[in-house]
Amino acid sequence: MTRAILTDIEGTTSSISFVKDVLFPYARRALPGFVAKRGREPAVRKWLDQVATENGGMCDDAMIVEVLQGWIDQDRKHTALKALQGMIWADGYRSVDFTAHIYEDAANALQAWKVEGLPLYVYSSGSVPAQRLFFCHSDAGDLTGLFSGWFDTEAGGKREAASYRHIVDAIGREAGDVLFLSDVVEELDAAREAGLGTVLLDRREDYPEPRVGDATHGHTRVESFADIVLLR
Ligand SMILES: CSCCC(=O)C(=O)COP(=O)(O)O
Ligand SMILES: [Mg+2]
């Protein structure tokens, strides 16, 4: 029985191209100015120092920026990068440089589930502040009120079963009562290993080649939130 929904963002509620073609380039461009302006603030320095330490103790901010830009190019889901990206995107949303993409079917289903009393949670590699900004400034308006909780990689990696066990504990549910929605089969594999229900979002806009047969890893596959059937 589904008593709570846990959803991914990129490729699930929202398009991969918005993240790759709008958010990431914005952060890449703004990074040098951001580090020059705010690099001494403890909340920023903490993450820059972590990157420096993990890269042999480099002490030059310009080198740290280069490492971070390389990580953006590789789509690394590193907690420090994600935290810094979230701070940079705050400026973009504030100055209305962009709004966050959300598929209409996702916005509609999330709103309907909320009305039905189903608690909704987010689990994304984007930092929790970035997730809040994302749904606050979405194409469908401020959707933050729909969600009862937010999880990022501070809960653990999205391809590790332990992360899902931690989240299920944190929200006070049985694993089997939580349905996890994602576009990434390895994330769904980890969630299933932890006992959660799983649905693979396989959107044509994001994945031109349908993932069928073995490619679904046995997860229920849908092309839209409108096709998700909840066990009641
Ligand atoms: C919500 S912040 C923008 C998305 C992001 O940075 C990201 O890495 C998305 O990863 P996801 O786990 O939502 O696929
Ligand atoms: Mg995703």
TrEMBL record:
Electron transport found in the keyword field: no
Function summary: Bifunctional enzyme that catalyzes the enolization of 2,3-diketo-5-methylthiopentyl-1-phosphate (DK-MTP-1-P) into the intermediate 2-hydroxy-3-keto-5-methylthiopentenyl-1-phosphate (HK-MTPenyl-1-P), which is then dephosphorylated to form the acireductone 1,2-dihydroxy-3-keto-5-methylthiopentene (DHK-MTPene).
Record-stated family: Belongs to the HAD-like hydrolase superfamily. MasA/MtnC family.
Subunit structure: Monomer.
Entry note: cofactor: Binds 1 Mg(2+) ion per subunit.
Protein's name in the database: Enolase-phosphatase E1
SUPFAM superfamilies xref list: HAD-like
Coiled-coil ranges from the UniProt annotation: none
Record GO terms (molecular function): 2,3-diketo-5-methylthiopentyl-1-phosphate enolase activity; 2-hydroxy-3-keto-5-methylthiopentenyl-1-phosphate phosphatase activity; acireductone synthase activity; magnesium ion binding
Keywords (A to Z) from UniProt: Amino-acid biosynthesis, Hydrolase, Magnesium, Metal-binding, Methionine biosynthesis
The enzyme's E.C. designation: 3.1.3.77
Cofactor(s) needed by this chain: Mg(2+)
Domain of life: Bacteria
Gene3D superfamilies cross-referenced by the UniProt entry: 1.10.720.60, HAD superfamily/HAD-like
Top EC group: hydrolase
Catalytic activity: 5-methylsulfanyl-2,3-dioxopentyl phosphate + H2O = 1,2-dihydroxy-5-(methylsulfanyl)pent-1-en-3-one + phosphate
A Pfam family reported for this protein in Swiss-Prot or TrEMBL: Hydrolase
GO BP of this protein: L-methionine salvage from methylthioadenosine
Pathway(s) it belongs to: Amino-acid biosynthesis; L-methionine biosynthesis via salvage pathway; L-methionine from S-methyl-5-thio-alpha-D-ribose 1-phosphate: step 4/6; Amino-acid biosynthesis; L-methionine biosynthesis via salvage pathway; L-methionine from S-methyl-5-thio-alpha-D-ribose 1-phosphate: step 3/6
